[in-house]
Amino acid sequence: MNNLQIFNNKNFGEVRTIIKENGIWFVGKDVAECLGYKDTSDALKRHVDEEDKGAGVLPTPGGNQSLKIINESGLYSLVLSSKLPSAKKFKRWVTSEVLPSIRKHGMYAKDELLDNPDLLIQVATKLKEEKAKNKMLELQNKQKEQIIGELKPRADYTDRILKNKGLVTITQIAKDYGMTGTGLNKLLHELKVQYKQSDQWLLYKEHSGKGYTHSETIDIVRSDGRPDVKMNTKWTQKGRLFLYNLLRDNGILPTIEQEAEREVACN
């Protein structure tokens, strides 16, 4: 799909056209408005056959928009069903002036334009600039869509972290990565985040005192039946976010982001 062109008529207004599969297609909403339909969506639904309709993604300053487009047959259907007295004039203008010119020159050009080489060069130059601008807009929109697609899973996961104000265990964090608590503890030890002492994981000096963890005393029963207490390390949400950034820097992503990256790779 290419060659977005916009042409105006002082009596009817603006109509956008595109070339799709070597055929000329019109933005249905534009045609319906020119022909006086108040509810353009209803007009397209009631008067245009399905085989004469399609979808086109057109670049706009606000981003790519998916619009309903119609072929020449669909345009004629709207003309015949229009109650606007000037509907026939609209049809005559499109069929006798616009369409032949697009087919012949690949652009909309009136006779006086074709008879004036200097003016034709100016218009062709402007058309070239407009196409380059549209191409740039389309590229920028695609880049924005890709960035949004990349950031959304990350935002979803960090939002989940920030919404949770309580303490979490290493096992709970590990589940976000498809790992076990034991496996994640071992990994954090290898990354010089923590070490084990008296059966409790403690942070190395570089990371301690930053509010990442909180030690809790829990009651336990020894194998011989004796009651005892044990110190257990839990992570704050600040610490959880620290782990997220650390693991991401080491190429380890939460499952929510892994799935998103696989979808991007497949597309």
UniProtKB/TrEMBL annotation:
GO terms for molecular function: DNA binding. SMART domains: Bro-N (SM01040). It holds the Pfam family Bro-N. Residues 1-106 form the Bro-N domain. PANTHER family: BRO FAMILY PROTEIN, DNA-BINDING PROTEIN-RELATED-RELATED. This is Phage antirepressor protein. It comes from Clostridium tetani.
